[in-house]
Queue: 2 jobs
Job 1
Amino acid sequence: MSFISNMPKDREMMLKKIGVSSVDELFKDVPADKRFPRVDMPKPLSEPEILLELSKLSAKNASAECYDWFLGAGVYNHFVPSVVGALITRGEFLTAYTPYQPEVSQGTLEAIFEYQTMISELTGMDVVNASHYDGATALAEAAIMSVRSTRKRHKVVLAQGLHPEYRDIIETYFQGLDMELSDGDLDDQTAGYIVQNPTWTGEILDVKAEAAKAHDAGAMLIVHTDPISLGVLEAPGACGADIVTAEGQSLGVGMNWGGPMLGIFATTQKNIRKMPGRIIGETIDERGNRGCVLTFAAREQHIRREKATSNICSNQGLAALSAAIYLAALGKSGFKKVAELSWHKAHYAAAEIARIDGFSLKTKGHFFKEFLVETPVPAEDIFAKLKEKFILPGLPLSRLGGGDKELLVCVTEVNSKEQIDRLVAALKEVK
Amino acid sequence: MSFISNMPKDREMMLKKIGVSSVDELFKDVPADKRFPRVDMPKPLSEPEILLELSKLSAKNASAECYDWFLGAGVYNHFVPSVVGALITRGEFLTAYTPYQPEVSQGTLEAIFEYQTMISELTGMDVVNASHYDGATALAEAAIMSVRSTRKRHKVVLAQGLHPEYRDIIETYFQGLDMELSDGDLDDQTAGYIVQNPTWTGEILDVKAEAAKAHDAGAMLIVHTDPISLGVLEAPGACGADIVTAEGQSLGVGMNWGGPMLGIFATTQKNIRKMPGRIIGETIDERGNRGCVLTFAAREQHIRREKATSNICSNQGLAALSAAIYLAALGKSGFKKVAELSWHKAHYAAAEIARIDGFSLKTKGHFFKEFLVETPVPAEDIFAKLKEKFILPGLPLSRLGGGDKELLVCVTEVNSKEQIDRLVAALKEVK
Amino acid sequence: MSNLWKISGEGRSAVYLPGLDVPETPIPSELRRQEEPNLPEVAEMDLVRHYTNLSRRNFSIDTHFYPLGSCTMKYNPKVNEVTAALPGFRNAHPYQGDDLSQGAIELLYRMQEQLTAISGFEATSLQPAAGAQGELTGILMIRKYHEERGELEVRRKILVPDSAHGTNPATATMAGFQSKEIPSDKKGNIDLEALRAECDETLAGIMITNPNTLGLFEENIVEVIDAVHKAGGMVYGDGANFNAVMGIVKPGELGFDVMHYNVHKTFTGPHGGGGPGAGPVSAGAALKDYLPGPIAYKKGDGYELKQPPKTIGRMKLFYGNFGILVRGFTYISMLGAAGLREVTENAVLNANYLKALVADNFPAAYDRNCMHEFVCRGDIAPGIHTLDVAKRLIDYGFHPPTIYFPLIVPEAMMIEPTETESRETIEAFADALNKIADEAVNAPELLHNAPASTSVKRLDEAGAVKKPVLRY
Amino acid sequence: MSNLWKISGEGRSAVYLPGLDVPETPIPSELRRQEEPNLPEVAEMDLVRHYTNLSRRNFSIDTHFYPLGSCTMKYNPKVNEVTAALPGFRNAHPYQGDDLSQGAIELLYRMQEQLTAISGFEATSLQPAAGAQGELTGILMIRKYHEERGELEVRRKILVPDSAHGTNPATATMAGFQSKEIPSDKKGNIDLEALRAECDETLAGIMITNPNTLGLFEENIVEVIDAVHKAGGMVYGDGANFNAVMGIVKPGELGFDVMHYNVHKTFTGPHGGGGPGAGPVSAGAALKDYLPGPIAYKKGDGYELKQPPKTIGRMKLFYGNFGILVRGFTYISMLGAAGLREVTENAVLNANYLKALVADNFPAAYDRNCMHEFVCRGDIAPGIHTLDVAKRLIDYGFHPPTIYFPLIVPEAMMIEPTETESRETIEAFADALNKIADEAVNAPELLHNAPASTSVKRLDEAGAVKKPVLRY
């Protein structure tokens, strides 16, 4: 069985109508010597068997609900309300595709139109696409767009504090392009200036100052941000950003061992035609009724071919829907509360940890929900000890090229005081 | 918050329209000295908190997927295909109620009509209601119906082999009624004769002979059966049953620590008006289009009041829907295969266990998927030892009033040979 | 409409099962069924498409306002479905033993405590499967109480006000009592004179729905209970309308002896197209030992299941509709005492607001503040019946209210908006009703021909009985 | 239609959050945002009702036949959703370490092996997030290959047949190549002469969609690959149509150097209204060391994640769209090799059957056996365009096929029924198409005015660009 309806009798009838005597005959265009090869794969499993098998594999992974969880670094353990799962699994959302036929796709189209609206509100930007694979590919496409928008410039400058894996991905995307990634100063060759705020180790930057710096050099300011932080922090749009990207995983998508995630991309009205990705617009039908459609398709690969703004086609539609439902579920007050709870709990945790003999805070200035701690012993050792107590204390920065004695701690609204106190108590014992 | 939309501002507007100055005023009919009492309850939990709390409670229970599972005795670990859960959680099914308004309830009505059809096919009976709380209450109502149908008789006779908890429930239901439950012979006072097949300890009876016995005495034959067994065993309708009841939990409902379950009830055409519970019928609308409606409502409590066939109102609608989806998912061949796999695996297990020194088979004659084993040491001791190895070997019959050295073993299509062999190996070690 | 059998093809199936991995044991031919059951044969996709499209032909809370009076069609939180699906609840077995069921028993224990606290009784059994079974439980408890006191022979009468729930008389019958109807007075209360006349030595008890099916709180509740108690009768409370009094008054303190709850109404178990529900029962000092069980008790650091000392026995298998109880426990635990009172306040406020908004065209049958619902009439113009108004509401995108019940109001419409509906939704519904009142006069054919917007029109219900077609 | 903002009320929210249980740390006012984001404010029920009703305005596989050419809209088994939601998959973090991720890494490893086996390549990376990213991956690998051989300076050209997928030219551009279109011959194959003319020292490679977007298997595939290889070019396979060749031929054995898959097409990841997908890439001996990673490897009794030796780097964060990979792994593991071949056979059979059923009115653009899809034209009568036929299909309850693609067939309709549709559904769709052909002549207004059955009619797409409204 292969989820197929047709039985041998059906197939016989069909072959007769087609006018061939066997299914094999339909493959006569395939080189005979290569046709019907032997394929070695494990024997098929029935539904109860695969469920058991995968339950076992799942059980071999750490799972957030079994730990006091302080690991973030780009993927966050924010709460996903039950409504999100209940709604995105509706077959009409889950098993539709790109809304090419708007009359029978208003569900997807309106939901994404709402997503665009809400992300526009969060970021303070005019235009939002829907969507990119993750924050890093969104950022890479933003970098490319900045170069393409400012004709004669070819350089993109990175401010300090960008997540190292993001940098890797921009480098991959830049490989074939006549574009340069630089850690140096801004100059008259600089098309885009990338600032992550808060930085990947937690520090909150002065984005307005960064914007001035970019604009003084004639470059676009690209801000990559944590969308949850926008519950309390100033919107990048209000600070002068030209492009905003973000990782939307925190917005109801879940951790998923790092995928699917959600690449958020927003820019100003004047950049619409340079923007990659899908956009939904509102219009009217023959009777004057309001409806939504895919729009500005002339930018896209299937129309503009080699001159397209990007080759992106399938995106993270269902994750964007999750984010829309998440934001609408929390609403104005709830979303702010998530950000505030994360702030207060993180600051409580930071203060308590800083008080432990041998530990100190390395993040300079303000932070939001994540902060870097200097540890008295290698952070990997701490991780190894605490995981036995079902505490994941954060990211040993050495895993991503940082120092041995650096631990990146993340605290969100799901961490109770009790959990934080357990973490602190456990850290006290590690020396 | 209490899942309420209206905010204080809304409430003010509403009170004004009503013409009262406060919500409290709306309760002035409540005796003043008893009004607004103090209520002591634990402090409310947020959504993430209740999820964590209940995950912890859930983790304190044994759960079938973590064990080699041979425990049955009326609640069975048959496989529930993933489609069942995916479909019954659709809001339109889950959050509708009794289909009083057929024009906007055709989904529920047609699905239950299909349920009636499929159960009619399984049992070989003409008419099926939808539904009872569980197999035992269905059987109790069948017993009552037999007495009410045969005017001057007041006795219901139980054959040997009825599940002891079922007997308890019939006794509870008979408490207030002028009806007698008897273990004696059938006589001219006997209205109904109850036969469980297979018996609760697994034995397959000669239902045709039992039917002859009942009918010779002028009594109705009531057969309570395991619906899965009807994948291979003769339908009770074909054996002469007048009423068939069954526990439908095996049909995609899941174990649920014993509830919800599904009471199946079927009878012959001539008994329709005596039958308790809801019935769906097909009819046509003004344009001649086919549609379904609740029918024969004149039997029911809300119309017939104290003369109703039963007081049943809410039933197990969603469980009946699960059963319909389950049966349709397996289909003719799949349903038969579940029954056959259960048969073959149970017989393999029985043969292997009987071969162990000190163990022997106590079920006489044929059995289907469940059989009674005589154990060399108390069955409770075996249970206690094997559970440490994550094997639940069956029901120690002493838990329901049976002998100390009796173990009721159940094997279904989900038990692999490997699991059975592990059970056998573990049993070998208990002595 | 698709029909599963019409889209069936021989040999198709939607489920992959494991292969046979043990030796075959032949099934004796004398046991084999002669004719195979004619089940549908479809692949998974056709199955899913069939049921998905079927579901789309339902109105439901998740899609429409559904003010079905007396059914408390409030919103069912999605978190309930997540908790009820936890593996230790969904895949646990009732006979796995107390030691392997500590989480489940603890949940029962805590929910018993919650219900006991909010109702003011002394003990609670979660076993009954639905409201009607909860009623039967209560009356059987009263029965056994009289029996043990040697008075059952004479106490044969259960009083049922004419404003009580429809199940009550049938329940009294199932418990072997004669039910006797008590009329309502002109304010919609129990007629005290009529009641007192029945309070004699043959009285076993009374079944009181409070607020009653008119949506009115019994103003003389203390007097009623007192009269029954003085005659030696017991007072049963039909708690189907408990959504109207949580945190406002404790029935146990009013003098009720026993009461059931509808978890699928008050405590957001989903209605499931007809169930499953759950109908726990609480009792005061006189009756608590008769509760059906098993009931959860504390035992050392853990919990155990036991029968109360004088129990009437088991009402159903095992420990109630546990999956529904998990949902109810989730909800109650999230709300707490203050949240439950907020529920009631808003349920009552919504009902009174709606009543006020439609008062010109659909005046309530009794001119008092209502509780969580109110009753009015649908015969608002010549030739127009309640059925017409109900069907016309469908065209406006609303599920009709309960109609032709309670029986004491002719052409009744019983409207229960519940607390989870927003002010805006209540207003939209009121607008629709008021427009229909206008149509009833100016365009009555719109009502007579309603619903116009559904896949089937009004169905021939008489025909369904005359020529029964009860399966494909 | 409801609009979340129109039904909002100040202060409403659908989520209960925990209270603050730690001391407050004031947020400096200079950091605080000046204006709060105007998010909707609704209770959970209004939210659920809004999105539930929105969803009901979609066609989808679960509700309708959806023969969108080149998108492989096959059925998505429900078991996939269960496995992907297992807590160790859904609630795991990419940085929790290999030792706490053994189950996930093992799954990657086993899926890499599965794909390698069915495709005949030597190694597989599961990292790319979608088909287009898989394409970019393949071309970047080719790029680095030439670069390491010192030939990149001259090898600037990527050939793209005009029957290739639409993303291919844009992909070549993103990798810094010039794309050059190669025409099709009159049988729908790559024009060999034209190809050979381009096979010079500037050739970096070719992107072949096989079967191509006409649904035809490239008859000269061996010659094509040979010509490219002889010129020093590498051959990239667009595996979006892999559903047509599983178990029939291994692209690795045909000589392809690298190929991507679409897990959301071939391996039943749900399409989700536009994604997420997953676009794993397999490579042969020449290119496998360039694969992006990390990739799963065996290590002792367990598994580890590592970058291949000459990797092009990371294509996206972490390890790919893992949740989609779980679904694909579930599906592949249930089917095995024989099942996957059965899929292909039935996909091709269904397409040819449908092609035969509509041949009189909608002859295929190329008169050959098709593979999993075929292309015909919709301008079947004077004044009738493909768009009209497409919209009219909606009235018959079918999602339209892909239209106006591929560009090489004017007024194209690209129809892919997939293997999961039953013979009966194929026939019903063919009936509808044939009826529409009749209507096109006898009642053309039905086509021009279609769809008549939807909540919105044809929408003004030009207006959407002229006056952009991109948010509420």
Note: Chain C has three domains: 4-56, 79-335, 342-449.
Job 2
Amino acid sequence: MVDAALRRIVSLPTAAWLDSPVPAARFILRGAAATRAAAGQGFGLSLPETACRATTDGNRAALWLGPDEQLLLAPDGEAELIEASLARALQGHAYSLVDVSHRQVGIGLHGPRAEWLLQSQCPLPLNLRDFPAGMCTRTVFGKAEIVLWRPAEQVFRLEVWRSFATYVVELLCEIDRESVA
Amino acid sequence: MRKFSGWTLLKEAFGGQQGWTPQWRRVAPQAEYDAIIIGGGGHGLAAAYYLASEHGITRTAVLEKGWIGGGNTGRNTTIIRSNYLFDESAALYDHALKLWEDLSQVLNYNVMFSPRGVMMLAHTVHDVQVAKRHIHANRGNGVDNEWLSPEEAKAYCPPLNIERNIRYPVLGAALQRRGGTARHDAVAWGYARAADAIGVDIIENCEVTGLVRDASGAMEAVQTSRGLIRCRRVGVSAAGNTSVVLGLAGVRLPLESFPLQALVSEPVKPVVPCVVMSGSIHAYISQSDKGELVIGAGTDAYTSYTQRGALHVNSHTLSAVCELFPAFRRMRMLRNWGGIVDVTPDRSPIIARTPVPGLYVNCGWGTGGFKATPGAGHLLAWTMARDEPHPINAPFTIERFRDGHLIDEAAAAAVAH
Amino acid sequence: MLLIQCPYCGLRPELEFAYAGQAHVARPADPSATTPDQWTEFLYLRDNTRGIHAERWRHVRGCARFFNALRDTTTDQFLATYRAGESMPVLQQAGQKP
Amino acid sequence: MSGRRIQQGGRVDRSRAIRFTFDGKGYSGFAGDTLASALLANGVQVFGRSFKYHRPRGVIAAGSEEPNALVTVMRDEARCTPNLRATQVELYDGLVARSQNRWPSLDFDVQAVNDLLSPLLPSAFYYKTFMWPRAAWHKLYEPVIRRAAGLGESPTLPDPDRYSQRFAHCDVLVVGAGPAGLAAALTASASGARVMLCDEQPEFGGSLLDEPAATIDGATTADWIRDSMATLRSRANVTLLTRTTAFGYFPHNLIGLNERITEHLPAPAADMPRERLWQVRAARVLIAAGSIERPLVFPGNDRPGVMLASAARTYLHRYGVAVGQNVVLVTGSDAAYAAALDLHAAGVRVALIADVRADATGAPLDLARQAGIEVVTGATVLGTRGRLGVREVTIGVLARGTVNDTRRVKCDALLLSGGYTPSVHLFSQSRGKLEFNEARQAFLPSVSAEPESSAGSCRGIDGYTQVLNDGARVGAASALAAGYSVAAPEYRVQALEFGMHGLPGVLPQASPLQPARAFVDFQNDVTSKDLALAMREGFESVEHIKRYTTTGMATDQGKTSNMNALAFVAGELGRTIPKVGLTTFRMPYTPVTFGIFAGYDRGDLFDPVRTTSMHDWAVQQGAVFEDVGQWKRARYFPRSGEDMHAAVDRECKAVRTGVGMFDASTLGTIEVVGPDAATFLSRLYVNGFSTLAVGRSRYGILLRDDGFIYDDGVIARIAGERFHVTTTTGGAARVFGMMEDYLQTEWPDLRCWLTSTTEQWAVIAVQGPRARDVLAPLVSDVDLSAAALPHLGVTQGRICGVPMRLFRMSFTGELGYEVNVPADYGLAVWEAIHAAGQPHGITPYGTETMHVLRAEKGYIIVGQETDGTVTPDDAGLGWAIAKSKPDFVGKRSLARETMHAPDRKQLVGLLTVDPKVVLEEGAQIVATPGQHAPMKMIGHVTSSYHSAVLGRSIALALLRGGRARIGETLYVPMPGGEIAVQVTATVFYDVEGARLHG
């Protein structure tokens, strides 16, 4: 096992509506439709077939990013386990599974201001009609690319490449300085 | 042609300015011309002027589908410079710059050429390398260009922000003092008036609808919204619409037409004394004689003939301007407009014969057409008159794309490592 | 900022997309067998249509797929979008030919 | 000066007096005043000087169409805003405003001499003169003209204010909250549709605010507006934006709004943004922009005190200000009679109504006459008098070309109305088609280009009842089009109102040659004579006339002048107005602050600052950074007293003689996985990869199909179907995109997939003869021996217990490794290596040292040795091309004849004859000394450094026919003289390459 003390998560500004980033196991799975069905069995969660939707089960989630691209999220420390079980489940399939646990930072936003903060610099409509709970997609926030996932009505999770995380959070904090009125 | 001068203006003052006559005649097309230029922008009008004045081909017509100078001539940011990297480009643009220098006198029309200097900023180590390469290459070619430290750049342009703590601080600048600006509309009108005076017919509201070829395949006539006009020597100078016009003769060129936006602020008293350009954060700015800040950037992302661009492209440009000139955040955008620029794969123009005998083209100027106006017209006229290129435009052929002789000014500035 | 129908994700803002040039310009299967003119055609010659233009976009900040679109370059209105590999849709309106 | 505030009325709060200054003089106004209304109330008539002739000008309008009353407002030294319309500046306590374009003072302006010289200065006079001598334009004339031009002064200090941006989406965006817009918003929002309603004014209501006496369904307008606002505010599906201008209509129903948030506040909170940009995407746009009254054009129509009739009414009803005590109305429309009647009722003497229509008749005239106001029909205005304000107007009656009954009428305000011009700006920006309506003498919206509709007077609807009902109907229709259903209510309005029809153009005169000038465009000082001159000189296209005379190009964009200019031109040319045509309506509707476009993009938020896992460590060590794309990279690590040269020398020596460490995390990394991964890479890169063994890597060159070098990197086979591909830092995104492009569209049959892993890995290069010694104690599950892990070998194992991909590779020419660990571990591993390397003198080095070391070895940097015109062979990399492959990207282009021409620029080394001289990068090369420009340049220096290990300078260059010139002496011309150089091979150090196999 790796000494946990060696791990340094990107340090970010804090705010009441912001969760501190938590390490996670992350994979990008790419492959044909048949792969997804098999991978779902290996991951213990059927992978989303609907565009821009996530499936979740307990603390695992699978996010549809593209027709052949899924982001798998699981608690930190499960990476080796997942890699092994997916390898077993996908025996004989052509696919690509790449560990991106450290590539990106999970930024959680919660509360009634979350949507308002994001809508400032995200061009997608984020109201519940257009962006319901369960929706996820790659998009932009200011000048950064993000994966935006809304697990619940007042909860957002941004998956951001690590070198953009500071920018994204500082921009959110800058927007937060404005009064809502 | 009634001479323009302070004296004639004074004389007219006593007559209520009643004595002026049309600057160019309003004529119907004749049945036949020795030369036709399609496109009544600055380039086309200049070509017609030089065909008549330097090559004696006075039976020349300029066909313009709308009003002259209404395309990119009237829609650009009027920057003039010749500090291009490659020998071929430097020769081409400096040829134009030299013509600019006495154009007002030659045309007897004040085109307000103002060599106030063009300063190109460097923000990174790589930018500095590229700028210095330009400076050395330019000097070798006899084109003025010099390196300024950030402090010297600020002395030349006082509102420029050279603080080190900004995102992309200014590390220095390349300055071409001979570069500057001119009054865009005056260029079109000045050439039109001068060409008209020596016999050129300038025909507005005349859209070309067909290019007619004889049995041998050579140019024979031009079909227009105002009738068929016979002519065996036709030059196309139609900027963003070049592909459409040449398509009438079945000629395809490596061109794509993109929107290019520009904007001006409300007029203010003099504050920006020169032209400032930043390639790496995408903006350029100068101030017109009227006092408006004139601002532009690169093209929009997708091909379009709509003559308008996107709001986010504007935002990007103004972000850069506000970063370089933080006092201008309170300035206000007065007018925004778009042109259609035709872009070649190597971002260098084509002034050449086409595969159709008697059909010539001047195109592909991308974002750099205005500065070339006199030179492009001069070289197109030469090429049409002699059926062979001038040495300066000889490299700017269509065939260079097939043969790989690209003159790639854009790639030369690309960044990696 | 245009609004573009991604064939996978639906209507999305232009900020998520990258324009990728004329569509249906296939790379020759055997480039070495092409003549210089054929190769030049593939590399550089484009229709630059004034009117309905078949073009490629990539939903680079979305599903990341390249896809094709028919857009009127005189109005910037999209007439159709379709997946890469699909053939160009036939437009119903009279007088419109791709 | 006489006060003009009437005893009661208006919507200002008379209980709250507000102090302000104008040109240093203190005044008092009320809360709710604009600067214009407050100054008028104080009897001020001169607000500014015109652009060209510096004529004194007053306010002529009450809204955003005002052309004259431009002022600079100074909140503090850094917060000066020029060119604001006094009619839109809301009064706050302590407001400081200054007039513009005058010296030394507003009442006495030296440059007013231009007015006397006006016969010499017709439109476009500058094109005809200032040409001799040649240099004089730039040196003499232009500076004078530039100083005379311009309006206010640009701010000079950095703007400390904040600017905000938001995206928004709605079903119906209603632009304009006058009667039509309010009715539309009420109706549409009742359907449940998400409605946004914006208006440029501080208060919703539009023209209803000028109608205190009118009733809507029995309620006073004030009550109706209040109740309507309460209803709208109570609806969660409604967003209300006051002080918000819809300035631009962009494709696909995107509307740009400019919201002014703090400008009206005396002391805005520090965090409040000053203004905000809204980018609203609406399913339907409903334009209810109203219409703007036109002035009339006659000699002397620009004196202070001359004002639109509707503006006089607004000042009266909204601000309780009578614009004069003895007024004359000149009108071509019925509507303006309301202004005269209301002023009369407020106790103002209306000396005369001069109706320019010979056939004017009906209710408005009857009412005026009943009130005892004299009305003359068929009138024209021959001139006005009054130096700093109108004092007298000369009226005549025109019949069959002659003017009779000429008389002078004293007045202190002259009200004008030529009828109303519908505001079709946004509609036209949307590319909708306009059609000229003969009856209305106006262009009206015809065919839409976007999902939008117009309602109310901006589409020619006349009369409050009709306008409200039109708003309601179009509001319901817009909601329906967006998928919501609602019935439109019917409104009934009782008001004193008359038709808005009018007549644009210049009032007929007895003789065409009047000494005084009739102004069409007030701000730009364009007169009817200027327009005539343009036509005389052959400018007949309306766009030409606009550009030649500058009519309509002032900061008001011709809101009050364009129709008059057009009608005049049409009349002179003998054409109809639609035949002459309109000039283009361009974004923005009113000027928009740059700051809102920049928004949050300032400082570090201007562009993301990308840093690696080890960045903070480098900062602590005092590294100097350079920007490479968005990344910050450590350039060198100076110790105290060292300059860059000294630091780099030390760093270089450390790597050559001991060991150095370098953060290579910014290089792009792409994981290519799948059964066809090797095939894919072989088709893409010039090299072959099918034969690359697992555990081995290869230097790869990527071309575009044009044959020129696009990127390079190292490609390692991690497993049979898994490759780890690196790219340049700047190329990471574009190479990834290019790969996806080929994979998705050219070779969709290939079964392999890409994942960007640039940010997954922290990459630590450990380079130098002691590199193995440093790493050995830290790694596990790895054999570092040369036999087990030779040059270009790749393995996986652990370092500090952390999983690692270990590359044996070298961009320095020394024994070297690149340690790849998951990025969150990067700093810890870096620190561990640094600690472990202390006994070996390990030295962190930056990009500058990296550049020197690789140059000593002749390794290229894409973007420095290449510039988009360099082939592999040019760069001396022809060896990398797999000759046996039938195809790869760029191969066909390399077969072109010119790609093999012997005089192509080829990469060579250069050694200065004087070893101490370091060439300048970018310097040019000539074959023979003593040339003057233009020189025959045969190449340029791409890289140049002092080499510590060689004790001399070295350089790389691209040189025509370079490889055949090795051994020749050439020259580098510099401003200080020529530098002689010898052409050499590209490798300067360890030519045999023994060291990297150590």
Note: Residues 125-140 of chain B form the longest helix (16 residues).
